[in-house]
Fold Glycoside hydrolase family 97 protein.
Amino acid sequence: MRKLMGFLLLACWQVCLYAGNYEVVSPDGKLKVALTVSDGLGMEVFYDGQSLFGALNMGLCLQQQPFKPVARSVKRSSVNEIITPVVPLKFVSVANHYNALRLNLKGNLAIEFRAYDDGMAYRFVTNGDGKKTLVYNETADFYLPEEAVLHLQQPVGFKTPYEEPYSHVAMKERKDGSKFALLPLLVDTKKGVKLLFSESDLYDYPCMFLKANEGKGVSALFPRYPLETKPISDRSVNVVREADYIAETQAKRTFPWRYVVVAREDSDLVENTFTCRLATQTTMEDTSWIRPGQVIWEWWHHTSPYHVDFVVGRNQETYKYYIDFASSCRIPYVLFDEGWAKSTTNPYESLEALDMHDLIAYGKENNVGILLWLPWTTVEKNFDLFKEYEKWGVAGVKIDFMDHSDQWMVNYYERVAQEAAKHHLLVNFHGSFKPAGLEYKYPNVLSYEGVLGMEQGEFCTPANSLYHPFIRNAVGPMDYTPGAMLSMQPEYFVHHYPNNTSVGTRAYQMALYVVFESGFQMLADNPTFYLKEKECTNFITSVPVTWDETKILAASLGEYLVVAKRKGDQWFIGGITAEKGKEIEVGLDFLNPNRLYEMTLFTDGLNAGLQALDYKKEVKTVSKAETLKVKMVRNGGFATVLK
């Protein structure tokens, strides 16, 4: 009888296995990933019994023929751990709790799924013989509800700095052959749930893009491996010949995680930590030298302080002035952007008017580190500059204009991060793709641009920027370069160097320092303006760039956002809105019940809807039992600190 029962159980298991139906459920039991293996590999994701989205034709093509999965075995596991990131942008500790399923397939291939309470992720794993393998394609057709609306950036090609404005497109309006989309992509299912698609643990592999799929959803798309490039300037190349594969990589490896945040509330998008949870964490033994912080930046306002007794420009007196200003405001870094070097192609010779060694030494005397801007092409041709800059005493580098997302360029990011870490240099990537986990493996990578930020003038509107915390900033640090002191409503906007301006109110600009996340947070404007607007500057320079705790107090996608963040025993709150304005009322029940707090509050002035520079400051004592009532005008905001 025992032998018969054993045979029946084995037969039943084999039938289930080869029938190809599996599932993995989140720790709280609400989210389920149902898998099917037949002629292809597919999944469907449910929350509270409701189907949210699915995928068909999921595959990793290691040969030039369709992917045909054959299941071999299944392994299940659960993990409940705490991650402590070196650079905590949201939380000093991150809970990583999930149930996992690994489906081993024929051909030294597997696919892993993780089910979290707030989303899911999957990735392929290979265990091939030999050192290298070619990946011809990775496929996935994601099907979405017909009524869904997509919030996405749409580049015209794979060469992109990820600075396109957001488009808001009904899924049924996207047609095969339309512009494709970057990650991250936000989907409003119109079923009370939003889905944020992105990736993490990206290495030795191209970035994923998405293209329209016959009005049913979106499909995975990847740039092919570049075989030949042609320089088109001192900082840019075009790919002129591609391989027929997307990657040549290790035969035994894990591939990037594809993840989907499942947000029941808009606030869930802002608070999510998926990129961190899925990234390879650092193995660096010493990270004590990695100091995130604010940066005074001279490019946006064309190095033009005034009320000074010297001729301004890219000269010794001007840069010492910036260092003095940073030191007086306790800003830890000054960025020397394009123009500090005699040539963009020579990273070792500065302008004759600059004594770099003297400036770096002067900065150190005043507790200010120097960051240097470089085109990526120059770095690639002079990779020993990291070693040389360490000798100089440079604190870090801003590397610009990569504008590509293929495997070669992804590997370039890691080579830079690794070499910079070896020589104790911090890194800020501009002209870049979005964060995808490298910043956790190499926490000296403190920020990425990859965003339509304040450099874009009148195109950088609160109506567009309000989406960043829900989409772009939701996947990692973002160098938006805030801090404009000349604020305007859009119909009055004028953009002239050296007195640059921004769209939105003064209080809105101040709030961005609390709302937006970046390990390097710029003060983009003229030091003279900051000195004239001292009470606003004192607030801005008091805002940390890393946090112990983050709470979303109010959120509505595209309309408004109010964020509270704690550092030690201080709380900062920032609120922003777009074209409609918003009266907000939020409780302060997150405060310590045994303390009173001094609240310094900056709000839009009565006339800020017309004259965006208008703001009001007030100081009062509050407690946990009270509520904060604020009126934000159109394109407005508010900012407060509670001590």
Q: What stands out?
A: The chain has 13 helices and 38 strands. Residues 1-19 have pLDDT under 50 and may be disordered. The longest helix spans residues 2-19.
